[in-house]
Prior knowledge:
Blueprint: E1 14-15, E2 21-24, E3 28-41, E4 48-60, H1 63-71, H2 76-86, E5 94-99, E6 109-113, E7 116-120
Parallel strand pairs: 4-5
Antiparallel strand pairs: 1-2, 2-3, 3-4, 6-7
Amino acid sequence: MHGDQNCLPLKxxxxxxxxxxxxxxxxxxxxxxxxxxxxxxxSWMNGGYRKDLDAVFNHQISLAACDTCHAGDGSxxxxxxxxxxxLGLDPExxxxxxxxxxxxxxxxxxxxxxxxxxTQS
Length: 121
């Protein structure tokens, strides 16, 4: 089973103060790190605490793919690895989550106070 295909990015990449790049694809939000990062994730792919990840993503799974995972015809990890490859990422140094929420409805917002900047999508 392969991850759903992603089309071209919907918006221009958004660069954060730490050098991270946020990309908004049709069915995925992707954050590329400028170097390996410590990440704590609940993902089926590279979940747990890792010190070597280059990117993270959140992906909108299609109903058909969701049904396939639930029917036992494929694994969530294999699906996430396929999404990772479709986004041009190395599945060995990436983690990601899946959701039924539509990624087209996301926004990226940054707020700063003194020397602290918080960005959320």
